[in-house]
Amino acid sequence: MAYYNFHSLFTFSIIIISTFFITINGGFSEETIPMKRMEKMSHLHFYFHDILSGKNPSAVLIARAKNSTGVGFGNTMMIDDSLTEGPEADSKLVGRAQGLYALASRHDVGMLMVMNFEFIEGKYNGSVLSIMGRNPVLNPVREMPIVGGSGLFRFARGYALAHTLSFDIKTGDAIVEYNVFVLHY
Ligand SMILES: *[C@@H]1O[C@H](CO)[C@@H](O)[C@H](O)[C@H]1NC(C)=O
Ligand SMILES: *[C@@H]1O[C@H](CO)[C@@H](O)[C@H](O)[C@H]1NC(C)=O
Q: What average pLDDT does this structure show over 85-96?
């Protein structure tokens, strides 16, 4: 107990000293000792609608390689895809996936995904998760890293599991189920 009190006092002194130090320096940069807080794990489940067909597609081709291989190496799409609670197109909207994906592999249908999941539902409204990863779309389940976030998801890290529910070979439209596991404060 005595040791604990001494330790707390010591930590408290460091904070006071560093605060004082920051005050006299000000300006460009400062370092603080973060308070210990519990990290939370959130599991989010939703469906991603990648719609290339129709008058109002949510995914558009923005670049195509001059002499692409059979796997479409180089083709790049910009997306603003709906994220919904259920798999149906008219299911409740919970967010949007904005960013791009590109065929980044010469050997398989391996995509580079660079996107932000912007949520609009409940306490997550306005919070964002950033994803950057490799998506070999023909695999039944693909794992992509969550590299950061904002709002409720500040300091986020984790992973997303993507599983294609349906794919229309004629139009390219796809519905993908996402399970996201994220650590944040
Ligand atoms: C495209 O690739 C084919 C086969 O590899 C080649 O014969 C052709 O010259 C290439 N065309 C261009 C424009 O590079
Ligand atoms: C989310 O936030 C926006 C802007 O702050 C607000 O207009 C909207 O009504 C909110 N949506 C929900 C579902 O709370």
A: 97
State which ligand 1 atom lies nearest to the alpha carbon of 67.
Answer: 1
164 has which bridge partners?
A: 176
What are the CA-CA distances from residue 27 to residues 15, 20, 30, 71, 174 (Å)? 19, 14, 8, 52, 50
16 lines ligand 2 (CB under 6 A): no
- For residue 124, the ligand closest to its alpha carbon is 2
Residue nearest (by alpha carbon) to ligand 2 atom 4 = 126
182 alpha carbon – ligand 2 mean position (Å): 22
pLDDT at 4: 47
Ligand 1: nearest atom to the Cα of 66: 13
Give me the domains of the chain, ranges plus CATH numbers. 39-65+72-184 (2.40.480.10)
- The predicted model scores a pTM of 0.82
What does the H/E/C string look like for the chain? CHHHHHHHHHHHHHHHHHHHHHHHHCCCCCCCCCCCCCCEEEEEEEEEEECCCCCCCCEEEEECCCCCCCCCCCCEEEEEEEEECCCCCCCCEEEEEEEEEEECCCCCCEEEEEEEEEECCHHHCCCEEEEEEEEECCCCCEEEEEEEEEHHHCCCEEEEEEEEEEECCCCCCEEEEEEEEEEEC
